[in-house]
Amino acid sequence: MDKVERRYLTIDLPCAGALLSGASRATSYKLAKNGDIEVLKLGRRKVVSVAWLESKIGVERGDLDGLIDGWYSKRNVYKSRPAS
Prior knowledge:
The chain is of the alpha+beta class.
Protein backbone atom coordinates (compact mmCIF):
# COMPACT_ATOMS: atom_id res chain seq x y z
CA MET A 1 0.00 0.00 0.00
CA ASP A 2 1.39 3.39 -1.01
CA LYS A 3 1.79 5.99 1.68
CA VAL A 4 0.11 9.29 0.77
CA GLU A 5 1.77 12.36 2.23
CA ARG A 6 0.25 15.67 3.24
CA ARG A 7 1.85 18.95 2.31
CA TYR A 8 0.57 20.59 5.52
CA LEU A 9 0.37 19.32 9.09
CA THR A 10 -1.39 22.42 10.43
CA ILE A 11 -3.13 25.42 8.90
CA ASP A 12 -4.30 28.81 10.13
CA LEU A 13 -7.66 28.90 11.88
CA PRO A 14 -9.27 31.20 9.27
CA CYS A 15 -8.22 28.78 6.50
CA ALA A 16 -9.76 25.85 8.37
CA GLY A 17 -13.00 27.75 8.93
CA ALA A 18 -13.20 28.70 5.27
CA LEU A 19 -12.60 25.10 4.13
CA LEU A 20 -14.94 23.59 6.71
CA SER A 21 -17.93 25.85 6.27
CA GLY A 22 -17.03 28.89 4.19
CA ALA A 23 -16.70 30.88 7.42
CA SER A 24 -15.12 34.31 7.62
CA ARG A 25 -12.13 34.99 9.84
CA ALA A 26 -14.29 36.30 12.69
CA THR A 27 -16.72 33.39 12.44
CA SER A 28 -13.82 30.91 12.40
CA TYR A 29 -12.60 32.27 15.73
CA LYS A 30 -16.15 32.07 17.14
CA LEU A 31 -16.44 28.45 15.99
CA ALA A 32 -13.12 27.67 17.70
CA LYS A 33 -14.23 29.39 20.90
CA ASN A 34 -17.44 27.31 20.89
CA GLY A 35 -15.43 24.12 20.35
CA ASP A 36 -16.73 23.45 16.83
CA ILE A 37 -13.21 23.73 15.41
CA GLU A 38 -10.48 21.95 17.35
CA VAL A 39 -7.46 24.23 17.71
CA LEU A 40 -3.87 23.85 18.80
CA LYS A 41 -2.44 26.88 20.56
CA LEU A 42 1.12 27.83 19.69
CA GLY A 43 1.76 30.81 21.92
CA ARG A 44 -0.83 33.36 20.82
CA ARG A 45 -1.32 31.67 17.47
CA LYS A 46 -4.15 29.19 16.90
CA VAL A 47 -3.77 26.51 14.24
CA VAL A 48 -5.81 23.51 13.17
CA SER A 49 -4.53 20.01 12.50
CA VAL A 50 -5.05 19.05 8.85
CA ALA A 51 -5.58 15.43 9.95
CA TRP A 52 -8.48 16.58 12.17
CA LEU A 53 -9.94 18.67 9.34
CA GLU A 54 -9.69 15.78 6.86
CA SER A 55 -11.51 13.48 9.27
CA LYS A 56 -14.16 16.12 10.03
CA ILE A 57 -14.84 16.72 6.31
CA GLY A 58 -14.49 13.03 5.46
CA VAL A 59 -11.77 13.16 2.80
CA GLU A 60 -8.64 11.09 2.31
CA ARG A 61 -5.17 12.08 3.50
CA GLY A 62 -3.69 14.79 1.28
CA ASP A 63 -6.97 15.57 -0.54
CA LEU A 64 -7.12 19.08 0.95
CA ASP A 65 -3.67 20.15 -0.26
CA GLY A 66 -4.98 21.84 -3.41
CA LEU A 67 -7.73 23.69 -1.54
CA ILE A 68 -5.28 24.85 1.12
CA ASP A 69 -2.82 26.02 -1.56
CA GLY A 70 -5.63 27.96 -3.23
CA TRP A 71 -6.70 29.62 0.01
CA TYR A 72 -3.15 30.68 0.87
CA SER A 73 -2.38 31.92 -2.65
CA LYS A 74 -5.58 33.98 -2.71
CA ARG A 75 -4.71 35.41 0.71
CA ASN A 76 -1.14 36.28 -0.32
CA VAL A 77 -2.31 38.15 -3.43
CA TYR A 78 -3.94 40.76 -1.26
CA LYS A 79 -1.00 41.04 1.12
CA SER A 80 1.52 41.58 -1.67
CA ARG A 81 -0.40 44.32 -3.50
CA PRO A 82 1.38 47.66 -3.37
CA ALA A 83 -0.29 50.45 -1.42
CA SER A 84 -2.03 53.03 -3.58
